[in-house]
Amino acid sequence: MKTDNFDYYLPEELIAQHPAEKRDHARLLVLDKKTGEKEDKYFYDIIDYLNPGDVLVMNDTRVIPARLFGHREDKEESIEVFLLHNIEGKTWECLVRPGKKMKIGTKIIFSEELSAEVKDIKEDGNRVIEFFYEGIFNEILDRLGNMPLPPYIKEELDEPEEYQTVYSKNPGSVAAPTAGLHFTKELLNQIEQKGIKLAYLTLNVGLGTFRPVSVEDVNDHKMHSEFYTISQETADIINQAHANGKRVIATGTTTIRTLETVFKNKGELTADSGWTDIFIYPGFEYKVVDALITNFHLPKSTLVMLVAALTSKDMILDTYRYAVEEKYRFFSFGDAMFIH
Asked: Cα 303 vs. chain centroid, distance in angstroms?
């Protein structure tokens, strides 16, 4: 299967630079995965497609202000340190810019309350960095860090919370689970009142989610890893819904990656945590998820392939062409799609 088979034309002006004025007023393209029938709606109409007894599963991760700016102990030139994931304690794997001068032993000063030292250099050039501080790291990040927006968003946020879901709770991501950005607390209350069960899990979204597939053959692509946690309570809610013949609706590709990973590893859905590098593309057989709320993804990305596995490559590319023609907004702050 060739990577180029998942390419599509996207005019740059359709890449959303800011969220909808009201979260649930983004547009919603509804796709019947069996017939290919499409409907143009608004996100607040999603409630009409959810039935009592269905389960809506959401990723409650919270984006950390992962971009830090400092300088080398002996120089005033600016150094950017981008936190990727916590290895243990005060040690993180990071991207650094400029990288060439950041050798092992280099000390970095961010402020009077935060400094760091390069401890190792990985094969891919990422640095292992130990931070030095007193107090709670996340509180220091809130004061010193910057929100890590995707590279295709050129505008600054008016409010950092615009890049968090309204149910975000567990810090650890360097990118938002963007399908969930469309929900408001009011809409979630209405959905619950209709008899749809809400369930949560956590997957810390990494930068790898933005990387295009660079190999010619899909099978040669090496997936990035992301850390997930799912509780027994969430597993029980989902298992009960399936036992009752109800649907499990995933909010976003990160939710799908978690649910399908656990089932693949355990043979059932149960409490679990660990790292997933699952690669879902056409030919994959979904075991847990019946329907998906998602955004429109980058050409030739693993996310387009994941979505295509829920329907078919041809149907998804046809739907994306339709979305371009109808001027839907794309990517993180863009419009949504509901595949059912």
From this structure: 10
